[in-house]
Amino acid sequence: MPTLNKLSALQVKSASPGKYNDGGGLWLHRRQDGGGQWFLRVQIHGRRREMGLGSLSEVSLKEARQLAGRWRAVAREGKDPIKERQRLLREAAKADHVLATIAHEAYEARKAELKNDGKAGRWFSPLELHVLPKLGRIPIEEVDQQDIKNALSPIWHSKGETARKALNRLGIVMRHGAAMGLDVDMQATDKAKALLGKSRQKRKHIPSMPWQEVPAFYASLDEGSITHLALKLLILTAVRSHPLRFCQLDETDGDTWIIPAERMKTGKEFRVPLSIEARNIIEQAKPFAREGFIFPSVRKGVISDATMSRLMERRELEARPHGFRSSFRTWCAEATDTPREIAEMALAHEVGGKVELSYRRTDYLEKRRVLMESWAQHVQGQSSNVIQLAEGQ
């Protein structure tokens, strides 16, 4: 049996340039520059192999002996320790590149593009709920269309919109993996979509109230409560529920309400013209204000979207608060001559391609002011003539 542990720590530290045998195939190569390298010599199928075990500055004599013992055992099994180490490194790399890890990295990289840095969690939730539980531990390079199809097929027809979002997000994750230099199948999501076929689920729009019925509903909101006042301002401004519920006193400046970019779906600051009636509602709501919020909750924070929805449910109405945006837009189309660009801008929708938008830098605030005043008159049941907001005006 070959002699082991021939060297001492002092010999290793004071060794001059040259090669020193510790026994059992473990060697130290001390260089002229003072550095050193451990290596192991083994015989595999009659062929000598030399395997580096690390530099002297990073691997002690004790650690070098432990490594040598580990790889000698591999050699005794008839395996090439160098190839075995490479295989293990590849496996470790794959473990670091599982789909779940890359998905979280892709999410972090996109946060700046998402509303409020994605804190609401809506961007990631389709992946977290419907993809990662089944595919999260698979190396992203091994994910194929059949894996994706199997993961999404249970919800493809029952939760079509969620499944579509999950597939879209997964495509972004796959592209992120490719950008990292990983060998991913860039067409996997498209091929999975072909395997899944067309979703049988029909997209449902949020129920809205016919614009002709809005005045009667508006008049019924006569309690002066936070919920009634919030619904009134929601109707008058045609904004989404989130920016309205989080409206703060210092955001309203006279006849204009400036909604910060982080509360807009577009991620851009938006100016809302306030009609006379809208300003009256804000004045009525000010006594309820707490911590700067115009529509605070009874307990903490602000009122929820469900609070307004439940009011409409109790009245056995099919329409929901978000549907008043549709009521307003239909009124614009059927009862006014409002140009499409202005009507869409009133809803904070962008109309036109990138080139057109880069040149059209107006938000039509003054024209929208006229429009929203006319809408307020309709909402209050006051007769108003068909308004005209031609492009040239």
UniProtKB/TrEMBL annotation:
Molecular-function GO terms, alphabetical: DNA binding
Matches recorded under Pfam families: Arm-DNA-bind_3, Phage_int_M, Phage_integrase
InterPro entries in alphabetical order: DNA_brk_join_enz, Integrase-like_cat_sf, Integrase_catalytic, Integrase_DNA-bd_sf, Integrase_DNA_bind_dom, Integrase_recombinase_N, Phage_int_M, Phage_Integrase
Taxonomy, superkingdom: Bacteria
Limits of the Tyr recombinase domain: 204-372
DNA-binding is among the record's keywords: yes
Gene3D superfamilies cross-referenced by the UniProt entry: 1.10.150.130, Integrase, DNA-binding domain, Intergrase catalytic core
UniProt keyword list: DNA integration, DNA recombination, DNA-binding
Similarity comment: family membership: Belongs to the 'phage' integrase family.
Full protein name: Integrase arm-type DNA-binding domain-containing protein
Species this protein is from: Aliisedimentitalea scapharcae
